């Protein structure tokens, strides 16, 4: 079974990572949905993410998912808060019955360095470990992606609206962050894991 990691964050909150090795037919048998996605691999990622939701919470009403104008998948009934992320052959999801959550799975790639000036402010750049610069910046990017998904309303400036407090680079750890917009001023707590050039970052429900 390609469920490669599960984490019970709290009694009401679970996280999972799925390595996609199955065909689309497998997921269609398990999660009978018809996504309007033409690209075969993106459609496979979509199926894997939805299947992961019901793997974490078997009673999850996956057929009730709708997509908002900001492209965030939600349940109208708000019985579950959830977030899904895809990267290559991996899907990750976090589900909570308690509060809003966000997750991101990211591969370490040079493009992170090329765009780092767009999502890291001067104070954040000052704590980046020069011996692990690309990986440390990838963790920062992944954390901010998770925050963006937690917020869910779009129109976020990753450098101006999100600020990560200093944290030391290591393979796994915790991050404190501030999310500031006119409608929301919130301190968030995140956790991350680095493994096989993949970064997984997620918010803890408040």
Automatic annotation (TrEMBL):
InterPro entries according to UniProt: 4-PPantetheinyl_Trfase_dom, 4-PPantetheinyl_Trfase_dom_sf
Molecular function per GO: holo-[acyl-carrier-protein] synthase activity; magnesium ion binding
Keywords: Transferase
Keyword Hydrolase attached: no
Pfam families referenced in this protein's UniProt entry, alphabetically: ACPS
Domain of life assignment: Bacteria
Keyword Transferase attached: yes
Domain 4'-phosphopantetheinyl transferase, chain residue ranges per copy: 100-199
Protein name, UniProt field: 4'-phosphopantetheinyl transferase superfamily protein
Source organism (scientific name): Chitinophaga polysaccharea
